Amino acid sequence: MRSIARSACTAALAGALLLTGTVFSGNAAAVGEGPDYQGNEKIRTSILSTYDEVVDFLKTQDARQDAMELEVIGQTVKGRDIHLAKYVSDPGNPTILYLAQQHGNEQLTTEAMLHTIKSLGSPSKASLLEDVNVLFIPMFNADGAMGDVNFPLDDYLAAGERHLTRYNANEVDLNRDHVAKAEPETRALHENVLSVYDIDYAIDLHHQGTQSRVNGDLVSGSILYPTTPDVSPELVERSKQLGAVVYQNVDRTGWGHIGRYDGGSANTIGRNGMAAEYGIATLLFEMRGMSDHEYAPYVLGQKSNGYLIHQSVVTMEATIAAVADGSVSKADTSFWDTLPQQCDTC
Ligand SMILES: [Zn+2]
């Protein structure tokens, strides 16, 4: 299993790296217009890292990287350990949290997080990590990601040994549980991460459907700051600055095409709840296309995996650097005033 794990992960990362090198030529439509499912190709979940492969990868990196510490913050409904990979060189540093797979069928962000963690082990990143604390939760909803749930997934479209679903094993949407904290996964996050660390920024990584457009072109993703009424204008501004760093760095690649996400204002949503309860500047980033679903227009063909993994890597690497050198607090947020809201019928 171990060798399969590595090859699956490596294949996805190799695709991302290949695409960074030479393929992108400034075509803004490149990502968004990539193939979706729609019968074009078979969706195979075997290319995605399993929970065991993710844990194996994290333990390997933990053994290799002095600056990294791997912590278990709790267990899922089915008893899987939920892992936090953390780099805390100085508690006084600014701290950023990256959360992936609240929704278990949104996995390319997890693959990107593994890549980012591995790259932080490079000697060239040592001085960067002296100025910022970074917290990663790569596979929050591990039961949903493995399709190990107490409800049927017979209608899901992906072929392979497993299905992936949005919900946790109890069929609860964890990204609507940030007030009640009724599920063990959400409690672990709040009690052992959000309440423990002095977190300044957080990016909640997701995947959306495949059909959203801005200015006629399919988007590569969409972003949004907290929209709850329970946060100060200053916190919204800091969140918008975090979004500005993401937007500028994805946009300058030439292939990223980002819209504004149309999101709700409830504190049950992580983007809002983390901001309202802990004063964390938050950003939601929705990558295009889910790994599995029963509804075809939500599922993305794997030919676009490399682009989307790389978009998530760009997001994490750029924001780590901007928090470390303080440039995030000088970011120009005016682009938000003209960022078009994505839509599925335009
Ligand atoms: Zn999601």
Automatic annotation (TrEMBL):
<dbReference type="GO" id="GO:0004181">
    <property type="term" value="F:metallocarboxypeptidase activity"/>
</dbReference>
<protein>
    <submittedName>
        <fullName>Zinc carboxypeptidase</fullName>
    </submittedName>
</protein>
<feature type="domain" description="Peptidase M14">
    <location>
        <begin position="47"/>
        <end position="323"/>
    </location>
</feature>
<keyword id="KW-0732">Signal</keyword>
<dbReference type="GO" id="GO:0005615">
    <property type="term" value="C:extracellular space"/>
</dbReference>
<feature type="signal peptide">
    <location>
        <begin position="1"/>
        <end position="25"/>
    </location>
</feature>
<dbReference type="GO" id="GO:0008270">
    <property type="term" value="F:zinc ion binding"/>
</dbReference>
<feature type="active site" description="Proton donor/acceptor">
    <location>
        <position position="286"/>
    </location>
</feature>
<dbReference type="Pfam" id="PF00246">
    <property type="entry name" value="Peptidase_M14"/>
</dbReference>
<keyword id="KW-0645">Protease</keyword>
<keyword id="KW-0482">Metalloprotease</keyword>
<keyword id="KW-0479">Metal-binding</keyword>
<keyword id="KW-0121">Carboxypeptidase</keyword>
<keyword id="KW-0378">Hydrolase</keyword>
<dbReference type="GO" id="GO:0006508">
    <property type="term" value="P:proteolysis"/>
</dbReference>
<keyword id="KW-0862">Zinc</keyword>
<dbReference type="InterPro" id="IPR057246">
    <property type="entry name" value="CARBOXYPEPT_ZN_1"/>
</dbReference>
<dbReference type="InterPro" id="IPR000834">
    <property type="entry name" value="Peptidase_M14"/>
</dbReference>
<comment type="similarity">
    <text>Belongs to the peptidase M14 family.</text>
</comment>
